[in-house]
Every structure is written in C-alpha cells, then in structure tokens.
Design goal:
heterodimer, A: alpha+beta, PmbA/TldD fold, seven-stranded antiparallel beta sheet, five-stranded mixed beta barrel, 9 helices, about 35% strand, B: alpha+beta, 2 domains, seven-stranded mixed beta sheet, 23 strands, globular
C-alpha cells in the first residue's frame, strides 16, 4: 500500500478500535553516505527505512505508539497499544486535533525535491569527496592530517493523515559535501570543517571550494592563546550567530512559554531586543531547509514575525500550546513518530543589516570574533548564557590572532538588547539563519 | 547461550545456517571481515506535566545492520525488514565496498561465553502501564510538597528492552537482552517576581522495575530536584577567571568523560588526530589519578554483557597513577593496529556503524577526607551538578557546564552561584589535581554520550577532587 493510503487506513483502524480521533505519520527515507580519508573510501553506507507513528484521542485522553514493523500484524499491534495507552493518561481539556478551519496545505511547488538528486552515480559522489580532501591537503603543508571528506545524499518522505479529513504527503531531497582537515604547528593540532548542502548535487559548491574554505578555517586556528579575563565586544560569525538564534527559538517555543519556563514568557508586546533586531519564522520560502507544505498536525506553514524592531510580537505555536495560551496555532507543529506534536520552527532567521562582516568587526574595535562555541551552557528558563569559545581576537577593528580555551558569558536578555551591529551576510544554510552579529559587551573568561 | 535461546531464533526463526548464508553474501565480493547485528527494541514512555499524565507511548523498532570491512574500508547497509531476501540484499550492498574473490567462512559459528550483569526477572516492558503511571504521579506529588515555591513539575519514565544478536565472520555468535529504565523529575521554582530557577534529577540503569520502589524512589528524585531549584533561588553571579575548582562526587565525573575519555578512543588515535595521540606511557594527569572505563559493573547504565560487536566488555585502565596506559578499541582499530581488544565497540542501533566508545568511566578513590579538601581552599568554587559537556578531541579543549555550584571562601562552602561553563585542556587539566577524596561515587544513571550523531547510554563517577587551576566562565 502506498504510504499516503496507509496513513489514512491506519487512522480508520484506530477509529474502529475505539479512538475518538486519530493522527498518523509515516516517515520514510533512503540514504547514501560515503567518506573518503587519505584518498581512499573509509566508510560507505546505503540503506532505506520506513516507520509509522500513531496518536489517538479517546475523549480528552491521548495515547501513542510507533513501529518500524509495517506488516498488518505490526500495524494492528501499534493501533491496539496506542488505544491502550490512552486509558492510563489523564483528561487534558486542551488536548485535541486542530480546528477544521486551521487544517490545509500549500499546493504550489515549494521546490523541496529535485529529481536530479538521483542523477549522480556513487562513483561520482566518491570522487567529489576525494577532490574536497585533495584540495585541503594540497592547500598548505601545515595541513598534515585528515579527518576525511564526505558526500551524503538522501530522499525523505513524510505522510500524514488525521480523522478530521486531512491527508497529505511530500518528499524532499538533500545532499551535502563536507571536509575536515587537521593542521599542526609546533606540536599543537587544530581541526575545523566546512560544508555545502543543497537539494541537488548541481547546486553544491565545488569540492575545491569546500576543501579550501575548510583549510583556511583550520589554519587560522593555529597558535591560539588564552586572553586575560575581561569585558569585551563579541562578534559572532554567521555559523555561530545561528546558534544564538536557536536559543531565542527555544525561548519563544510555546511549550516553554505556557509552562513559564522561558525568560521570554509573558513578554508579548514588550521590548526584548535592540530595535535593529527583527526575527522572522517563515516555513513557506521555496527550497529552504525549514520549508514544508504543512506542519506535523496538517496546518499550513506560514510567515510569522517573532520580534519586530525589538518588540516581541509572537511565539512559535502548535495547536496545543496555542490553546494553552489562548492564541491560534502558527503552523509550527513538529513531531517525531511518537507522541504529541512539539513546536518546530520553519526558516527562523534574523533579518540582515547593511554592514559588511568587515565593517561589523571594525565597529567592535577590540573584542573576540567567535568561530566556534563549545558546550551548551545556556539556560532558557532564566536566560543565563555561559559557553566555551574559540575564535580570533579583534584589535583596532581587525582580526589579529587566534584565541582558544576561553568562555563567554552574559544573559540572553542582555545579549539581545546589546546587538549593536548586524551584517548583510544572511545565508540559509539550515533551518536557523543569522548574519554576522556584534554584541557590545560580554564577559570573556580566560587567564 | 545457545543461539536457539535468542530472541531472533524464537521470534523470527533465525538459524545458524541463515547467519552463515548472510555472512557468505556479505563476503561475496571479497572483504576481510563481516558482521551482522540484529536488533529489536521495545520501548515505553510516560510523561506527567502540570499534574496531568499527558502522554503514554509504546514503540517497536527492529532491523539488521550488515558490515563488511576490507582493509581500512567499511561498507554498511541495513534493513528494517527481517525477511531473508531483504537481509541478503543488504548484505550484497555492504559487500560492494570490497573488490576481490569471494571469501568463504573459515570456520563455523561458535557461541560466546555467557554471563549476566543485569539479571532482570521481569523485563520493564512487561510491567503494567498503570504501575508505571503511579511512579510519575508519586514524583509529582512529592515535588509539589517539597516547597511551595515549586510551581512546575515534569516527571517522565522511560524503559526499553533491547534484544541483540551479533554474528561475525571470524566465527562468533552471541546474543543479549539489555533492559534499561529511567525516571526523571524536573521542577521550576520561583521567588516573588524573579525569574524561575530549575532543578533536575533522575536515575536508573539496567535494573528491574522494583529498583524504583525499593532503592531510588520517585520521592528521592523529587526531593533532589526540588532541593536544587530551591538552592538556586538564592544564587549570585558566577565568578569569572582562573581559580581553584573542587568537584563533588558522582556526576561531576563527566569531567573525565570529556577531558580524557573521548580523546582516548582508538579511532581518533589511529588517525593521529587526538590531543592524546602517541602519548601512551606519558604523564597526562597528576599521580593521584587512576581512571578506568568499566563495562562490567552490575546493573549500571553504561554496562554491557557484550559490546555491539559481540565481544565481552572489560575493565580497562586508561590512566594509572597519572600515566596514560591505553586506548578504547573497537574491532576495526584492533584489526588495523594489532592492539588487544577492550570490548568498546558500540553503536546506537542497527542503522549505525560501531565505533570505540566509553561505558562507565570513573576515577578511583584517593585518600583525602572530602571535608579537608574544602577546608584547604581559601577561595574557589565547589561544583556538585553538571548539565553536560563537550570536547574538541584534536586540540584537547573541553567544557562542562555546572548547573549547581557554590562559592568556597576561607575553606567554607558559601552561597550558590548561577550556571557557568568550565573550560580546560584535556592533557593538561588533570595535572592540576592536587587532592582526591576517599568518597568515589557513581552517577545516578542518566548519562547519554553523543559521537558522530550516535547516542549511547554511559555512566560516569568521581570522588571529590581538587583542581588547583581551571577557567570558570561566570560574569562576576
């Protein structure tokens, strides 16, 4: 049975087994992955998989089950156990499927799947990885070891149906090429990485570019030192600014908000950031990594302004969290296979400013340009932020020398309010995106 | 441990003949070695939030992973369908990595030795759901009763039983039943209009359900979670800069996991990309430090009767009196380097290639009285709980994030401080350990270790230790 028919069939079986409402998800995928090290294949993996998850409601109680056994016996066992599970849960007045008026999906082509994903033969994928590794090995004699280069590609399918008449499915393609050089100097080693990802192999950056960028990133870390403990300006490169943005994403997640476990709970309409800061979530931009025709509850994705010129305008909500807060879903339901929907961002980004990255660094004057964050010392409940960092020291508005083994600390609230410069270099490399950002002051802890 | 007793023989009719046929298919293009990993996992999970049991879930995943090694090359494929034709097809896919004449199995399959580090008479999956629901309800009630400033309680219970069967082309077949259970309680507390503070506690292991009724009860975890959140209500900003750090016993052993454990995994060292590469026999810690990784401990979260390549786990000394003794090996590393196996080949599941991983990693007890350790510090920080860590194995820098710490002033424990990340360098940090307590404690059983996208359960442990110098990432 085709997956789109199977999800609807499972919903019917759940209703027949005593559920008053049901929603079923099937996820399937094919993956190919090859890594090359020192010129030869190191690992090659190829496989396909498919699993189903079911959530049922019996009145206001809910239960779930999932299985990778999609035989008729496996499915009926899943249906039975979901209904059984509902018996032991409590009545939750807010539990339930989305309102009928909220259900729907975009029918325009969101460009999530590119047929040419199938066009590249395994040998050509191996060759791309080999070229990326060769490019970084040849770049500088200090690059004397390799953690390899990889080519990954895959196709995934997602199908969903519920007992209110929604049924939909879509497939998406992705491929990526990554490179991990290791460089040595004076007995100390450093590694870094770079990658390119796209919906089709033709849109990837060349292996040579990926390898050379990875090489440059690794080399600039050599000879790193600690700096004295001090207050200083902090510049996040886009890859790191994106991590900061992901913490903001957690703080506006409806689940944290209704449970009062976010420092941004209860602050709708208030100033929470510098007025140059605008953060948007948009699940409808064609081709991007956070785009989908509908969310994990069958609600169309949309564009939601989260912070507009520093003012908190909206949270990220699914049906449950919206009901808890007396609001309407923003089409941000996500879901594994098991259990109730959680909240998931679409393309969550901080709008670009007008400065080049060099101008942002110049504006910082003295401080730390952060190229790597180590650890996750971030507390969304109270906003405390303390993380390991590595990067380059900024002197007289220029990158001067590499720095490592330091921490940077502040609170997310203070950081949002002291974003003093925003770069124009916004790129959507994952579902979170931010340009180069400068924060006026944080505590750098070192010697 | 007869194959006939294995879950896969009983439920799916897998025979020795089948295993040999699949291995033969895997070596049909040449290749030096092949193995099969059958896995069947049944899980259940219950979540209570805001006083309501909001979700109860059960699930099943199953499949078989097939690996072929040819020199330094690894080919891998898996199937989530256990039909013989599908397994053979996956075996042929994995076989493509090699190019040579087909290999035949040299000897028949021998069954591995039997032991049971986690005898669980009734698997958690056979305990009724209502009984499990009672646990989270008890945790909720106890946490709410702990202090009136606690306003949110989330209690979750998870268990699983994993059945595995490993068959290798060098003639080993072995199987295991691996139970795991865990109860977590997290709370939020608030004083007046201030921002809330959180507390988190949890534990379990490869234990029977009655562990939560007799040994570590829901009330125990609820009180510990409540204690942390209430303590943090009074917290001040954490200090910044280099200072003396005292780690409390137990979970702060995550220091060892990050600072040395990962850097000693053989895959990185074989490639020469770890800060510990080529340092066996050298001094990498103070002579007070002996660090072991032990997969053979009774009922622990990180323990395994056999690793995920079918080899028995062991007690491996990593650092002895400050001297680096060896690395954690998987099959590929031992094949390529000739090192003796350590039973450390682990994987997240049938979709994943095994790698050298830790099991339960801890430092042996020393001789100091913990109270004397605190008394010896004029100014510093005492860290008793952590929220995890990370390491860059190449330059050796590691962090771990303290979630509950206190100032030490004039040899006395003072006010609690806000969360702060500690940073150090692996081969250097342990050289500054100047006192080791006599109070070795293992963690409660909550550790999850991530590496290259694969998560596996682990344990850590440490006695109270004094580190003369480490960078603390506060703001004050």
């Amino acid at each position: 049975m085709k997956p789109l028919e199977l999800v609807q069939e499972i919903v019917q079986q759940a209703l027949a087994a005593g559920a008053t409402d049901a929603e079923c998800t099937i996820a399937e995928g094919e993956e190919f992955s090859v890594s090359v090290r020192v010129g030869d294949i190191e690992k090659l993996q190829e496989a396909a998989s498919r699993s189903a998850g079911l959530r049922v409601l019996v009145g206001q109680r809910s239960g779930s089950a999932y299985t990778s056994d999609l035989t008729p016996e496996g499915i009926s066992r899943m249906v039975r156990s979901a209904v059984d599970n509902a018996e032991v849960t409590g009545e939750d007045p807010f539990a339930g499927l989305p309102d009928a008026a909220d259900l729907g999906q975009h029918t325009t082509d969101l460009r999530l799947f590119d047929e040419s994903i199938r066009s590249l033969a395994p040998a050509a994928k191996i060759e791309q990885a080999r070229r990326a590794e060769a490019a970084f090995m040849a770049y500088d004699p200090r690059i004397d070891k390799s953690e390899g280069a990889s080519f990954d590609s895959g196709i995934s399918g997602r199908y969903f149906a519920n007992s209110r008449g929604f049924a939909g499915g879509y497939i998406s393609s992705q491929c990526s090429l990554s490179a991990v050089p290791v460089a040595s100097e004076n007995g100390a080693m450093e590694r870094d990485y770079w990658y390119s990802s796209a919906r089709s192999p033709q849109k990837l950056d060349t292996p040579e570019n990926v390898g050379v960028i990875a090489a440059k990133r690794t080399l600039r870390r050599l000879g790193a030192r600690k700096v004295p403990t001090q207050k200083a300006a902090i510049v996040f490169e886009p890859r790191i600014a994106r991590q900061l943005l992901s913490h903001i994403g957690e703080a506006v997640d409806g689940d944290s908000v209704y449970r009062d476990s976010s420092f941004l709970a209860g602050k709708l309409g208030e100033r929470v950031a510098n007025e140059s800061v605008t953060i948007v979530d948009d699940g409808t931009i064609p081709g991007l990594w956070g785009t989908a025709p509908f969310d994990a509850e069958g609600v169309p994705t949309r564009r939601t302004v989260i912070i507009e010129k520093g003012i908190l305008k909206s949270y990220l909500l699914n049906t449950y969290t919206a009901r808890k807060l007396g609001l309407r879903t923003t089409g941000n339901a996500g879901r594994g296979l098991s259990g109730a929907a959680y909240v998931q961002n679409g393309n969550f980004y901080l709008e670009a400013g007008s400065l080049t990255p060099e101008e942002v660094i110049r504006k910082a004057g003295t401080g730390l340009y952060v190229t790597e964050i180590l650890g996750n010392g971030v507390n969304i409940v109270n906003g405390d932020y303390s993380c390991g960092a590595q990067g380059l020291w900024i002197e007289n508005g220029e990158l001067a020398y590499p720095v490592s083994e330091v921490t940077i600390a502040s609170t997310l609230m203070e950081m949002l309010n002291s974003i003093d410069a925003i770069g124009s270099d916004l790129e959507f490399l994952s579902t979170m995106a931010a340009p180069t950002l400068m924060i006026r002051e944080m505590t750098v802890s070192g010697q | 441990m007869a194959l006939a007793d294995s879950y896969f023989a009983r439920k799916f009719g897998v025979t020795e003949h089948d295993l040999e046929a699949y291995l033969g298919e895997a070596l049909s293009q040449g290749g030096d070695y092949a193995d099969l990993y059958f896995e069947y996992v049944a899980t259940s999970a219950i979540t209570l939030d805001e006083g309501i049991v909001k979700s109860a879930s059960q699930g099943v995943t199953m499949g078989v992973g097939i690996r072929v090694i040819s020199g330094e090359r690894t080919g891998y494929a898996y199937s989530d369908d256990l039909a013989p034709e599908r397994i053979k097809q996956a075996a042929r896919t994995a076989a493509c990595i090699a190019s040579g004449p087909s290999q035949v199995l040299k000897h028949g399959l021998m069954e591995g030795e039997k032991r049971n580090l986690y005898p669980v008479l009734t698997p958690p999956t056979e305990i009724g759901l209502k009984t499990k629901v009672d646990l989270v309800k008890r945790a909720d009630a106890a946490a709410r009763k702990y202090d009136e400033r606690i306003f949110q309680v989330t209690a979750t219970y998870h268990d699983q039983v994993k059945q595995i069967l490993v068959a290798t082309s060098d003639g080993v077949v072995n199987h295991d039943t691996q139970p795991m259970a865990r109860l977590n309680v997290s709370v939020l507390a608030r004083q007046g209009n201030e921002l809330p503070q959180s507390g988190y506690s949890g534990g379990g292991g490869r234990v029977a359900f009655d562990f939560f009724l007799n040994e570590k009860t829901p009330e125990y975890f609820a009180a510990e979670s409540g204690r942390q959140a209430i303590a943090m209500l009074d917290s001040v900003e954490a200090p910044a800069g280099e200072m003396t750090v005292v780690l409390g016993p137990g979970w702060p052993g995550v220091l060892l996991h990050e600072a040395v454990g990962h850097g000693l995994e053989a895959d990185f060292n074989r490639k020469g990309v770890s800060a510990f590469s080529g340092r066996v026999g050298q001094k990498v810690a103070s002579e007070l430090c002996t660090v072991v990784d032990d997969g053979t401990m009774h009922s622990r979260r990180g323990s395994l009767n056999l690793d995920d390549e079918g080899a028995p786990t062991q007690r491996n000394v990593l650092i002895e009196n400050g001297i680096l003794r060896g690395y954690l090996q998987d099959k590929l590393s031992t094949r390529l380097t000739g090192a003796a196996g350590t039973g450390s080949g682990r994987r997240e599941g049938y979709q994943s290639i095994p790698m050298p991983r830790m099991t339960n990693t801890f430092m042996l007890a020393g001789e100091s009285d913990p109270a004397d350790i605190i008394r010896s510090v004029p100014k510093g920080i005492y860290c008793v709980n952590f929220a995890g860590g990370q390491v860059d194995i190449t330059n050796g820098n590691f962090v771990f994030s303290a979630s509950e710490s206190y100032l030490i002033e004039d040899g006395k424990i003072g006010r609690p401080v806000r969360g702060a990340t500690l940073i150090g360098n692996g081969p250097e940090a342990l050289k500054y350990i100047s006192m080791v307590g006599n109070d070795l404690k293992l963690d409660e059983g909550v550790g999850i270790c991530g590496k290259e996208g694969q998560s596996v359960p682990v344990g850590v442990g440490i006695p109270t230790v004094k580190i003369d110098r480490m960078t603390v990432g506060g703001t004050a």
